[in-house]
Amino acid sequence: MDNTNEGAGSQPRVRMSGKQRREQLIGVARELFAEKGYESVSVEEIAAHAKVSKPVVYEHFGGKEGIYAVIVDREMQELLNRVTTSLTGDHPRQLLEQAGMALFSYIDDETDGFRILVRDSPVSVSTGNFASVILDVAAQVDHILDREFKKRDYNTKNSEMYAQMLVGMVALTGQWWLDARKPKKEQVVAHVVNLAWNGLSHLDPKPALHESD
Question: Residue 143 and residue 74: Cα distance in Å, rounded?
Answer without folding.
Answer: 25
